[in-house]
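Take a look at the protein record below with the fold in mind.
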Amino acid sequence: MALEHAILVSLLEKPGSGYELARRFERSIGYFWTATHQQIYRVLRRMEADGLLDVHEVAQRGRPDKKEYSVAPPGRAALAAWLHEPVQPESIRHELAVKIRGAAFGDPSALIAEVERHREAHDDRLRRYLAGEARDFGAPDVPRSLDVGQELQHVVLRGGIAFERMTIAWLDDVLDTLHRLRVPPSVGRP
């Protein structure tokens, strides 16, 4: 996926400045597609030059005017065309998994702290996802009326929640295995 498509989706959900867009990437879209502020501003300028975005100057008191971006008709057409293109299933490059396999040739217990660190990071992300779900979509057992955009945002978020839960369960399994294989310091490995 190109950053352009993520920007188009975000701006169709809500027009905004480059700063506001970067904040959205940090809070929601960034869970699934990351970009630096520099990348976002560079792509916004290119998309504006290509006619995909409309830009309006917004006056601010005591500060320089800001640019507010929205999607122009050619941007909508580009997104619509992209939605019809097939995408390849993603392959996972997982450095930690390679380290875990490599631990067979060293001390498996040496990875315990690293796996615990990864587990904590995924647990933190899961908590953020769940807090965002509660904030944006309410309690899961309370009926709610969502528009199409909200339903699709929620299903992506639920996918992120399921992924984090699966990853945490796997990391717990890895930790159990590493603890079981722990080699006492006085015992050498072949």
About this structure: Helices lie at 3-13, 18-27, 37-49, 73-83, 95-102, 112-137, 148-180.
